[in-house]
Amino acid sequence: MFNTFRNIIKVFLREIKLVGTDHSLLLTLLLAPVFYAFFYGSIYKFKVEEKVLLAVADDDKSELSRTFVSELNKMQIASVVGATSLQDAKEKMYYGDCQGFLYIPSGLEKKVLGLQQADIVLAVNAARFLPSSELAGAVTTLALTVGAGVRLKYNEMQGYNTQMAMQETQPVNLDYRPVFNSRSSYGAFLLPGLLALILQQTLLIGLAESVALDKERGLIPSVIQLAGGSFSAALWGKGLFYLLLYGCYTLFFLNVNYSILEIPFRGHVGDVAFVFFLFFLTLIPLGVWLGTIIPNQLMAAQIMVFSTYPVFLIAGYAWPYEALPVFMQGLSSLIPTTPFMKVYISIVQMGGTLSDNVEAIIHLIMLCGLYALLAIWGIRRLNKNQQSLSL
């Protein structure tokens, strides 16, 4: 046992020296995680769309329409841009001066006060999803609120007291309470998963590059010799450096980035630490195995960078796992990101525990065993091939 540990330390120290002398590995492992975390995180720091430009053409020019426009302009999501006519509002949207337009036709107030149905027109530029959806939701909510206010005032004029008038106005009251992501913001949803994805991809890129570099230079037999002939010692000796480094990154992200970006943390620190530890134990053999099947260091970097967005899309985070085609679900199940994200988001955003995610944890452990076997097989194959070439 002591000899195995000593061999692991030897390979670990060799990995530190290798990373310190290779510029590509240095940039990938020491600069990229911190840079990307702050760079991408700063994009979504405010998390929600604010003051999206909306052109308003008011042909009614009544007290009700002016109140509606004034209240709309006070909302966080919208900033009203005046338009002289409906055609002018359309042109402002078409030329990109605003993200949509609201048209209030003549006779709105008269119809509303007469308890007749009145229409207003909202057109949004759906080429940008977030502004269009936020504007539509805000205008709909405001229209319902203003309409309810007019009906309430009418019922009070009919002799109802305030309580009875409110019951007549809103016989069914919707109590809408978004939980966990209280502002329903895209940034609050995206940032936790984005930070974890940065850790995953930079680890895989660096480790695959390292193994591919040793393969390219024909140094796999020397690594095995340094590990005392043990393929598992070579695997975990190389991986120990990445486990310690990315453990430090995890602590940094959870304390610094979460604080700066104001990301809620609802779970238990110990649960999150365990999940990340298990996640890295799965990623390390995966990265080693990928390095053994990729021809050289440059191609390893190219392939792993290219895989980042596809992995994000099929991991069940950006798009529900159940909504994927069956064959894509099978592929997604082979990616450690899929079970990890399920546990990680459950703990961090929803306040869940490890016991709430037993199935996903078992899934991650099974993938760890699978990729450990593949990594050892890949190292053994490379060692045999390079030894035969040296004879």
UniProtKB/TrEMBL annotation:
GO terms for cellular component: plasma membrane. The keyword Glycoprotein does not apply. Residues 24-377 form the ABC-2 type transporter transmembrane domain. It is a multi-pass membrane protein. Pfam families: ABC2_membrane_3. InterPro entries: ABC-2_transporter_component, ABC2_TM. One of its GO terms (molecular function) is ABC-type transporter activity. The chain crosses the membrane at residues 25-44, 186-207, 243-260, 272-291, 298-319, 360-379. Keywords: Cell membrane, Membrane, Transmembrane, Transmembrane helix. It is found in: Cell membrane. This is ABC transporter permease. It comes from Chitinophaga silvatica.
